[in-house]
Amino acid sequence: MNTPNRLVPWLLAAACAIPAAASATASTDTGAQPAAPRRAADPVLVRGLRGHVWTLQSASEANGQPLDGLIVPGKPFVMRFDGARLNVKGGCNTMFGSWRMSPQGQLMLGRLGATMMACDASLMKADQVLSAVLSQPLAVHWEAGAEPMLRLQSPTQQQLRFSGEANLESSYGAAKRVFLEVAPQTVPCRPGAGAPRPCLQVRERRFDEQGLRIDPPGEWRPFDNEIQGFMHQPGVRTVLRVNRYERKQVPADASRHVFVLDLVVESETVE
Question: What are the structural domains of the chain?
Answer without folding.
Answer: 2-16+39-166 (2.40.128.270), 172-270 (no CATH)
